[in-house]
Amino acid sequence: MPDEDSKIDHYVLEYRKTNFEGPPRAKEDQPWMVIEGIKGTEYTLSGLKFDMKYMNFRVRACNKAVAGEFSEPVTLETRAFMFRLDASTCHQNLRVEELSVEWDATGGKVQDVKVREKDGKGRTASPANSPAR
């Protein structure tokens, strides 16, 4: 997008869902969704569904009299991000199992540390091993 161009009054963003990778197809089933009156060169589109395959986007600049041509459409996807929590490094009060995480207010791990301290196998005084970590 051009930097501050005094001739441009606003932008129009259009997007639609698609199931195809790559450039938009000539005939798409989904209609274009329109967002008008965008004043800046950046816009955050909220409400997108997580792990959607692909979406087409295009934009055009408008002044007070006429709208310009649409940009070449681009295709994006909202990929899923997979992660796992590590039971050995999580917060002391979290109980992490294979597919679930549960808050344990009694702090099961804190009790284990206190038992080890009594046996002489507790934490050292270094900040890296402090309970606040």
Automatic annotation (TrEMBL):
<protein>
    <submittedName>
        <fullName>FSD1 protein</fullName>
    </submittedName>
</protein>
<dbReference type="GO" id="GO:0060236">
    <property type="term" value="P:regulation of mitotic spindle organization"/>
</dbReference>
<feature type="region of interest" description="Disordered">
    <location>
        <begin position="110"/>
        <end position="133"/>
    </location>
</feature>
<dbReference type="InterPro" id="IPR036116">
    <property type="entry name" value="FN3_sf"/>
</dbReference>
<dbReference type="Pfam" id="PF00041">
    <property type="entry name" value="fn3"/>
</dbReference>
<feature type="compositionally biased region" description="Basic and acidic residues">
    <location>
        <begin position="111"/>
        <end position="122"/>
    </location>
</feature>
<feature type="domain" description="Fibronectin type-III">
    <location>
        <begin position="1"/>
        <end position="81"/>
    </location>
</feature>
<dbReference type="GO" id="GO:0005874">
    <property type="term" value="C:microtubule"/>
</dbReference>
<dbReference type="InterPro" id="IPR050617">
    <property type="entry name" value="E3_ligase_FN3/SPRY"/>
</dbReference>
<dbReference type="InterPro" id="IPR003961">
    <property type="entry name" value="FN3_dom"/>
</dbReference>
<dbReference type="GO" id="GO:0008017">
    <property type="term" value="F:microtubule binding"/>
</dbReference>
<dbReference type="InterPro" id="IPR013783">
    <property type="entry name" value="Ig-like_fold"/>
</dbReference>
<dbReference type="GO" id="GO:0051302">
    <property type="term" value="P:regulation of cell division"/>
</dbReference>
